């Protein structure tokens, strides 16, 4: 029996302003879509990242260390099979 083709739900369009992200003012812009509707834009720079939700004009700045903490909490929640630190 042939496999069913899954419909792609998410897509990302990328735009790179400068080839070297270490330079000031350079960044990578990622436009994120779900079901062909834009859900936000993520702008990655060398010092931090910025999130623009859906069609908002105001951005939310997140430092890389803060982003790492947020991802760790999402990916590795406490109390789910982890032992307490001694």
N-to-C CA distance: 53 Å
Stretches where pLDDT is under 50 for at least 5 consecutive residues are none
In percent terms, what proportion of residues is strand?
35-45%
In total, how many beta strands? 5
Gyration radius over CA:
18 Å
Task: Name the average pLDDT.
Answer: 82
Estimated structural class: mainly beta
Task: Kindly summarize this structure in a few lines.
The chain has one helix and five strands. With 86 residues, it is mainly beta.
Helix-strand blueprint:
Layout: E1 10-16, E2 28-34, E3 37-44, E4 48-53, E5 60-63, H1 64-75
Antiparallel strand pairs: 1-2, 2-3, 3-4, 4-5
Polypeptide structure, described:
This protein has one helix and five strands. The mean pLDDT is 82. 14% of the residues lie in helices and 37% in strands. The protein has a domain at 10-17 and 26-75. A five-stranded antiparallel β-sheet has the order 1-2-3-4-5. It has 86 residues and is mainly β. The N and C termini lie far apart (53 Å).
